[in-house]
Specification:
The chain contains 1 helix and 5 strands; from the N terminus they run αβββββ. It is an alpha+beta fold. The chain has a domain of 54 residues. A hairpin with a 2-residue loop joins strand 4 and strand 5. It is elongated, with a radius of gyration of 21 Å.
């Protein structure tokens, strides 16, 4: 009987510990403020238009492909797509956030 109680307490404790992780994976509500707005400075992959990385960040760093991110400015936001202008020209990227 003690083993059953221990297992139940352990299972409950694990579910409490994992609840914040599950909550963090939920998408933002549709009414959330857009992640990007026109005029924002962002950083994109330095590969240019031919790149399939689609990396868009709010801070400088490296892309997952290994290239340095370059600075760009948001020129248009339409749902989950963001158009940016950089030294490589204009690109439209999908953000995954509305």
């Amino acid at each position: 009987m003690k083993n059953v109680v221990r297992a139940a307490v352990l299972g409950f404790s694990i579910s409490l510990a994992l609840a914040p992780v599950a909550r963090a994976a939920e998408p933002a509500p549709a009414s959330a403020t857009p992640a990007y707005k026109v005029g924002d400075k962002v950083w994109i992959c330095g590969c240019g238009k031919a790149c399939n990385c689609n990396t868009l960040a709010k801070a400088a760093g490296k892309c997952h492909c290994g290239k340095d991110l370059i600075e760009a400015t948001v020129t248009k936001v339409d749902g989950n797509t963001v158009t940016v202008k950089s030294a490589n020209g204009e690109q439209t990227l999908t953000t995954g956030k509305v």
